[in-house]
User: Fold this.
Amino acid sequence: MKRTALLHAELSHVVAQLGHGDMLVIGDAGLPVPDGPRRIDLALTPGIPRVEDVLRAVLSEMEVESAVIAQEALDRQGGALPDWCAGQLAERGTVPTAVSHDALKALSARAKAVVRTGECTPYANIVLVSGVAF
Assistant:
């Protein structure tokens, strides 16, 4: 059995296959998953799992070069990063780029995978761009 925080086999496999510049999307329950990217559906009930929890597990294994969130998520917080990502990204020195929600949905079509959570907070979606560990 794995010793790291990310125990979900399919999600761990996707993270292991990411190359430099590849994208992984972690989205709320309502984010449409476009045709093309692999769909990893973790949604169990409203709020379970939360984007914050999935992000924490993914970041335990993924080297992140950059991140993208919807401007609408920032607007809901008065310009501040939403709680579901602020601390975790700050710990890694990552400041996400903000784009419109429509642009984020279009960007997700180029992702290797989209992870659907049970999150029901509007605009709780993040695109993680894979970096390199050296």
